[in-house]
Amino acid sequence: MRIIGLAGSPRQGGNSELLLDALLAGAESRGAEVEKYTLNRLSIRGCQACYACAKTGRCKQRDDMDRLLPALLAAKVWVFASPVYWWGPSAQLKLALDRMFPFCHPPLLGRVQGKQAVLITASEDKPAAAAPHLRGMMREAMNYLGVEWAGELLVQAYKKGEVKNNPAALAKARKLGQKLALGSGL
Ligand SMILES: Cc1cc2nc3c(=O)[nH]c(=O)nc-3n(C[C@H](O)[C@H](O)[C@H](O)COP(=O)(O)O)c2cc1C
User: Fold this and answer.
1) Substitution candidate for ligand 1 out of 79, 124, 154, 165 with most atoms within 8 A of CB
2) Which of 7, 24, 99, 148 is most exposed, with minimal Cβ within 10 Å?
């Protein structure tokens, strides 16, 4: 079982990243192979809407998506971790998601169907108020790709690293990682 985590926050050691790390550690403890990408450190340009990928299966742009897309294809589970910014994802996550457009077309569409996705969010406000749009967007996007929704962890936390004071949330993240590694989510 291979699990890939995308850390979408620009804050190193931020809340969503700490939750992602806990999930990945839980998964690893149950034998999963885990891999983490910090999107803020990658060079990813915005989708240019040229639709070349729809015709050829490959984006015209040469940047770090050249290694992220194969890594996503190689994993069974995708874990997206993002702060809530303006009720939506971080710009870093949105850039990567837009560049996953090759997955919307054959032949790659068939290769992502049946994978699983998980969302982790951190927000200043309570998740019920802050995260429904981000959650809805990611659920719709994964549903469109035929990727199964395997879990979510939406946590209230504001200052950098504040989630360290929330052992229950970190334990939930670890537990979810363990479940995913054993082939089950939610
Ligand atoms: C540009 C920006 C926009 C934000 N927008 C929201 C928001 O809409 N709702 C909210 O509850 N918190 C918002 N926040 C607060 C962050 O979601 C919060 O600090 C979170 O813990 C950041 O996660 P991180 O530590 O993983 O970066 C915003 C923060 C920034 C910098």
Assistant:
1) 124
2) 148
